Structure prediction request, 152 residues.
Amino acid sequence: MYAWDPLLHFVSAVVGQPVYRSADPLRAMTVHVHYGGDEQDRHFDVSEYTIVLHLLAPEEGGVLEYVPRSRSSVEQDEEALRGIVEGKHQQLTRALPTVPGTLVLHSGHSSLHRVTPVHGTTPRISATLSYNSAPDGRLNEYTRQLYFGRKR
Ligand SMILES: [Fe+2]
Prediction:
């Protein structure tokens, strides 16, 4: 699916600019499995655009929460970031439930986001596909070690 050109063209059409698949050998396409108690803390993606394809939903939780186009505001305003983390700005937060078969295209690079804690015995499983506006997008070795436990 990641190598399928029509999907690449679809992403380009939606975001309104040419995009390229990640050239990173580990991050380009990943599968995330979140078991009960797992979550993904708030972060910005390294890649500009990410497709999340939901494959399996947990009994509860595992919601993709995001604050649209928040990067510039939280980078310039530590108080705003603290408010989001402490839940004081719920009106800014959007939530997408995990529904198997749903394809989500988002700009994780510009929107702070997280996966809420998963509950139950069924894991949350999703595939993520990374895209950038420039070719040869790769993680640096530090980030690759942090995410994947190895540099190459
Ligand atoms: Fe992310």
The mean pLDDT is 91.
